[in-house]
Write a structure and sequence with these properties.
2 copies of one chain form a homodimer. The first copy, chain A, is an alpha+beta fold. In chain A, 23% of the residues lie in helices and 45% in strands. Chain A contains 3 helices and 8 strands; from the N terminus they run H-H-E-E-H-E-E-E-E-E-E. In chain A, strands 1, 2, 3, 4, 5, 6, 7 and 8 form an 8-stranded mixed β-sheet that branches. Chains A and B meet through strand 3 and strand 4 of A and strand 3 and strand 4 of B.
């Protein structure tokens, strides 16, 4: 089979996160995938838990890919996520590390960032 | 004990890489650390192997930290490395993922990049 286009999966992922639709994001993950956000916290496992995680994000979300590096079926990428709630914007630029299966589904995600990285405008 | 300053370790690491001194870079690693560069290749293990890896880099090297995110004793960071050989510059912007011990020594490094990411000027 053809190798999956990992860069395209990352772009689809960021678009789904911005949509605010937890189920749409979870659909990009493999059934038994894990999500650790931020790194060091207890991982969420499986599509239901992953859907609930993204569905719980509040406010108007925009995302932008900054820098992506793909090595086979693994990738690391930095991105900007802006969450607008009322007149306030919360800005974070995490670095996510993901692994993928042969079909291009995300099998694990680990988000590197700390609350102190957040900028409030 | 005080938590190590991971950001400072990363800065020291990039300075040591630019020095071209393999032993100086290896000294920032724990004795039994692993180095996987690029991700997907066979890891190097231990300071001797790590020293040989960095000592084998040719040309005049400059490094610049672009974006670093620290979560406890793990970190991900993008950086630019320019290797100048004669009149030609080879430019790569990898994303490295590192883990550290309590003393701030690097216990593992994984470098996300692909040869196709390289720019030659």
């Amino acid at each position: 089979m053809t190798a999956p286009d990992i860069k395209a999966v990352i772009e689809n992922y960021l678009a789904a996160v911005a949509s605010g639709d937890g189920a749409a994001v979870a659909a990009l993950y493999a059934a038994d995938a894990t999500l650790e956000d931020p790194v060091g916290s207890e991982p969420h496992r499986g599509r239901d838990a992953i859907s609930a995680f993204y569905g719980g994000l509040q406010g108007e979300i925009t995302t932008e890919l900054l820098h992506a590096r793909v090595s086979g079926l693994e990738a690391a990428f930095s991105f900007r996520v802006v969450t607008k709630a009322g007149d306030t914007s919360y800005i974070v630029e995490p670095i996510d590390v993901m692994t993928f299966d042969d079909a291009g589904q995300i099998t694990s995600m680990r988000a590197f960032w700390a609350p102190t990285d957040m900028v409030v405008e």
